[in-house]
Amino acid sequence: MPKIVSIIEDDFTLSQLLQKKINQLEAFNCNKTFITVNEFILTNEPADILLLDINLPGTNGIDAIPVILNKYPNIIIVMNTIKDDVETIYKSLESGAIGYIDKQSFDDNIQEVLETVQNGGAYMTPKIARKIIESFKKPKMPNLTEREHEVVQGILDGFTYLQIAEKYFITIDTVRSHIKNIYKKLSINSKAQLFKLYRN
Length: 200
Description:
Blueprint: E1 3-8, H1 12-22, E2 28-29, E3 33-34, H2 37-43, E4 49-52, H3 61-71, E5 76-81, H4 86-95, E6 99-102, H5 103-118, E7 123-124, H6 126-136, H7 146-156, H8 161-167, H9 172-186, H10 191-199
Parallel strand pairs: 1-2, 1-3, 1-4, 4-5, 5-6, 6-7
Helix pairs in contact: 3-4, 7-9, 8-9
């Protein structure tokens, strides 16, 4: 009997594409897709595997994980999202997700993903696994906010303040403010010290 897969994804075109591909597999079947977490919860139709986006209307995917697991303790949750920052990945896995897939790769790995998690394994696409591995090489900076981590990474990547501002849709003054807070939290006062801290 095919394993039931549900999808929570607010991009209707993408959800229909995923549903079609899943239904082409003999061992899996996707009867329904959902736009919101509440819509999925209220149907009272448990699935074996849930593909869960993070940026959703209403409750976001990460906050939804414990709620879903509380109602369906045996469901296997795989995050399927464009968000690939390390902090978000960790939060998802710590909350109970068994897999983490970047949307761009899911198309190519759909059967492998579903078979792996259904057979007791965990799955991360290579891009996500690489980010996790690289995170172990860097010192943990638990006092930095997610935005401050992004600004640090921008500096390490050689971006100017203007480029960082444009990348994250913030002002240069906001970037400077973040830099000031980062230096204070890390007890440093220059880019050189920042590079030394992260490269050692």
